[in-house]
Every structure is written in structure tokens, then in C-alpha cells.
Design goal:
- The protein is of the alpha/beta class.
- It has eight helices and six strands, in the order ααβαβααββαβαβα.
- It has a four-stranded parallel β-sheet. Strands 1-4 form a two-stranded antiparallel ribbon.
- The chain is globular.
Length: 225
């Protein structure tokens, strides 16, 4: 599993792969494969968030919960789907907020967020795999312990990172973040069930760029081409 992780992350996360929960997780994923279960994303994409956004380049973290569980959707980045796939409702609401938050933003024709990832936005899900058509099916198998350690490692080893936490689940991870060194932006989740309760109008993207500007860092170009 570790051999598919970018070297910049492996340098800080290598000890985690020998932890009992990761051994258990590897065994669980092997059992899923042997049982003929379809698991998303495909193996090569599980660590995409890390392999596109290298450790030294992280400026922003957007935390999701589970990968999408439909065919061809998930590709290792939270909230993102592959080109050619219908834009999920939460992402459509993210785009709506961007249109009112960022002057000149135009609604993209696809939901692939790799352009953000390449600028230092770590699009991290708490659980990195899921069984097809079975949401939450890979929760509590070890992934959460791993991604909690990722958040703590970023908090410990970096400074001035903007953590965007949408919804109660993401906000529960705030305890892992040193607020003396980093910045947290919170709001309700962009899901259709909660977006009207405070996600719309929360302006997380302009707030993030304002923080980055004050920190002397390059702002994120949120426009998806």
C-alpha cells in the first residue's frame, strides 16, 4: 500500500503503514477483492489526493467523508468526479457558492477538481475506499485512523494551512488541528439537505484567498476550465 504513495508524503507517513489498524485495513481490502466486491476508486487512484498535492505544496485542506459509490465517479479526491460523469448535487452547490463568492467565476461543465489539487488544495476524504453502491461500507476499517494522522501530521509539521470543514463530520476533526498555527473555516455541508442552512453565502473561497494573501502565499484560482 505504501509503495503507491508519493515520496513527499511517504517521508512523513511511512511509520503509519506498520500500525495494526493499517495491517487490518490491508487485510480487509484483500477480503473485499477475494469476495468479488467492486471497490471504488480503483487501486491506482486511492491515494490520488496525496499524489497530486505533494506534502510540501499543501496550502488548503478540504475534508470530505466517503468516496462516491457510483460507477466511474470516485477518483481519489474529495467532492471531485471524473470528467464525463454527472456533477453530484453537493458539488453543484459548491459551484453555485463559487459563482456568488468569486467574481467572474463561471460554472464548469464537469466536476473534476484536479486543477485545485495541483495548486495545493488537498482534497482529502476521511475514508479512502467504498464498496460499489454501498455508502459508508468501508468506514471503521482503519481509514479514519490513517486520515486523522494525516491531519495531525499537517497540523504538526506545517504552518498557516487553511482547513475548510463543511458539516458536523468534518468539523469533528477540528480537535486535530492546532488553531494557534492554522486557520479553520466552518459552515454547514453543501449537501442539498443542508446547503440552505448556512453554506450558501458562507464565502469559504474568498475567505481562503484572503488568508493566503495575508500569509504571503499564492491565492487559489478556483476557476475550473
Amino acid at each position: 500500500m505504501a509503495n503507491s504513495l508519493d515520496p513527499s508524503w511517504l517521508a512523513v507517513l511511512q511509520p503509519l503503514f506498520d500500525k495494526p489498524y493499517m495491517v487490518k485495513l490491508k487485510h480487509f481490502l484483500q477480503q473485499e477483492k477475494e469476495a468479488g466486491q467492486i471497490v471504488y476508486p480503483k487501486n491506482a487512484d486511492i491515494f490520488n489526493a496525496f499524489n497530486i498535492t505533494h506534502f510540501d505544496d499543501v496550502k488548503v485542506v478540504i475534508l470530505g467523508q466517503d468516496p462516491y459509490h457510483g460507477a466511474h465517479q470516485a477518483h481519489g479526491l474529495s467532492f471531485s468526479v471524473q470528467k464525463g460523469i454527472a456533477i453530484p448535487r453537493s458539488l453543484a452547490n459548491i459551484y453555485k457558492e463559487l459563482k456568488t463568492d468569486i467574481p467572474g467565476f463561471t460554472l464548469p461543465a464537469h466536476g473534476n477538481l484536479e486543477e485545485w489539487a495541483k495548486q495545493g488544495v488537498l482534497l482529502l476524504n476521511a475514508t479512502l475506499t467504498v464498496r460499489a453502491s454501498a455508502p459508508a461500507s468501508h468506514q471503521k476499517q482503519g481509514w479514519e485512523e490513517f486520515t486523522d494522522e494525516v491531519i495531525k501530521t499537517i497540523s504538526d509539521k506545517k504552518e498557516g494551512i487553511v482547513f475548510i470543514l463543511w458539516g458536523a463530520f468534518a468539523q469533528s476533526k477540528a480537535v486535530l488541528i492546532d488553531v494557534k498555527k492554522h486557520f479553520i473555516i466552518k459552515s454547514p455541508h453543501p449537501s442539498p439537505f443542508s446547503a440552505d442552512r448556512g453554506f450558501f453565502g458562507s464565502k469559504p473561497f474568498s475567505k481562503t484567498n484572503e488568508i493566503l494573501r495575508k500569509e504571503g502565499k499564492q491565492e487559489i484560482d478556483w476557476q475550473i476550465s
